Amino acid sequence: MIEICFVCTGNTCRSVMAERIAKKMAKSLKMKDLKFSSAGIYAKGDNITQNASAVLKKLGYDSRNRKSVKLTKIKPNVIYVAVTNDHKKFINSKKVLSFEDLAGTVLDPYGQNLEVYEKTAKQIEKNVEVLLKKIESLRGVL
Fold it and tell me: From first to last of its 142 residues, what are the pLDDT tens digits of the chain?
């Protein structure tokens, strides 16, 4: 089992969107040995934002509400995918990469309109697609 945790600031938009997008993409690719989670460096138990939920629903992903989860302990067997390079610097692990390492920067949509959230979701989809392809290509060597 490969465990991947997406990390952003508050775990109410980008990282939770990445988690849910990755779950559906991996399932559609029949990648059953992957487990996804998400957390925020400064998460405070807030709900997923309404706009994140609305965009996830519109794009066909799980849009259920949930409380944000604070990143408290770095686990040695987890691969961390930070939304930005600043988040990556915060995570003290040899198993960390950022979206910027994969397919590019992901906008922070917090407090913005649905259009910005949808653009962010599309950026996340590209990054998750690259991540899953990398995992698939490494299977022979792992």
Answer: 999 999 999 999 999 999 999 999 999 999 989 999 999 999 999 999 999 999 999 999 999 999 999 999 999 999 999 999 999 999 989 999 999 999 999 999 999 999 999 999 999 999 999 999 999 988 755 4
Count CB atoms within 10 A of the CB of residue 112.
15
Would you put residue 117 in left (φ > 0), alpha (ψ -120 to 50) or beta? alpha
DSSP conformation class of 33? T
Residue 140, amino acid: G
Ramachandran assignment for 104, one of left (phi > 0), alpha (psi -120 to 50 degrees), beta (any other): left
pTM of the model: 0.96
CATH class given for the domain over 2-130: alpha beta
What is 34-84 written as a DSSP string? EEEEEEETT--SPBPPHHHHHHHHHTTS-----B--B-----TTEEEEESS
Q: Long-range CB contacts (< 8 A, 24+ apart) of 63-66? A: 63/20, 66/16
